[in-house]
Amino acid sequence: MSLKSEQVDDLIARGKDLIGGKMTIRNKEFKFLNIGSAELCSGKGEPERYTITGNLISEDGDMLQNPLKKIVAALEKKKLK
Fold this sequence. Notes:
The chain is α+β, with helices and mostly antiparallel strands. Helix content is 31%, strand content 42%. Strands 1, 2, 3, 4 and 5 form a five-stranded antiparallel sheet that branches. It is elongated, with a radius of gyration of 13 Å.
């Protein structure tokens, strides 16, 4: 899930508001811990595209890295319920 440079700042701002949110993945509760760094993923000569991960941790210490876009979408959907 690559993002254009103007989408990166918006996604990070939305993600910061959701840190600490909880979500269930594979029947296990995970807490949104922090936002990883933005990494350039476009090839030479292509428009700049980025990927950003978010870090999740369970109560028993398991850690997952998922695309920040998916984490934000899931937590915003849960927040609306």
